[in-house]
User: Which sequence fits this backbone?
């Protein structure tokens, strides 16, 4: 049994663009504000579609057959999301991540994937995430055990953070990632991938 997830991969130009943004944001957050935050390695940046606590290889193969069919049919082609910029997740009072955040993506309700959620092996997923799909890309992480309430500081510094051009956030692949962790950082080996 393997923890795994389906995730959208950023286009190379998007990854480079976001790296510039996060380098600038890091100068403000970990530099000027001395927040206990670090950049997630850009090769790990993605937008999760659906997370599974554990699946066997055969179950992943079944899901991937559907994913290939949907991707080939253009289900995820040219997604346009309402990217709103950098945000602290889950909130400045309980900081865990700095992410590029979008509003609820209403078009996700048309994805054929939703009809499969009650069925095996899809029912082993964390479905609530997809039922009201709110995209985000994790770009930075706070140090474990960080309990500092950043509400007031975040209000003061949010105007100093770089803005994000929504048109520059482009995804070009959907991949099946295995989710393992190392002591240094999350590691997401790609098991399968398809252009979207």
Assistant:
């Amino acid at each position: 049994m393997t923890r795994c997830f389906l995730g959208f991969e950023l286009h190379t130009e998007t990854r480079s663009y976001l790296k510039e943004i996060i380098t600038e944001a890091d100068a403000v957050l970990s530099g000027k504000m001395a927040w206990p935050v670090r950049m997630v390695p850009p090769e790990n940046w993605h937008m999760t579609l659906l997370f599974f606590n554990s699946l066997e290889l055969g179950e992943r193969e079944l899901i991937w057959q559907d994913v290939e069919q949907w991707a080939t049919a253009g289900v995820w082609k040219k997604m346009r999301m309402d990217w709103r910029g950098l945000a602290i997740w889950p909130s400045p009072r309980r900081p865990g991540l700095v992410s590029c955040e979008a509003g609820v993506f209403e078009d996700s309700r048309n994805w054929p994937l939703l009809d499969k959620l009650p069925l095996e092996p899809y029912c082993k997923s964390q479905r609530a995430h997809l039922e009201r799909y709110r995209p985000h890309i994790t770009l930075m992480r706070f140090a474990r055990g960080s309990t500092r309430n950043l509400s007031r500081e975040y209000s003061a510094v949010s105007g100093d953070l770089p803005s994000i051009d929504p048109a520059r956030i482009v995804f070009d692949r959907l991949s099946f990632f295995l989710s393992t962790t190392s002591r240094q950082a999350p590691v997401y080996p790609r098991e399968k991938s398809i252009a979207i």
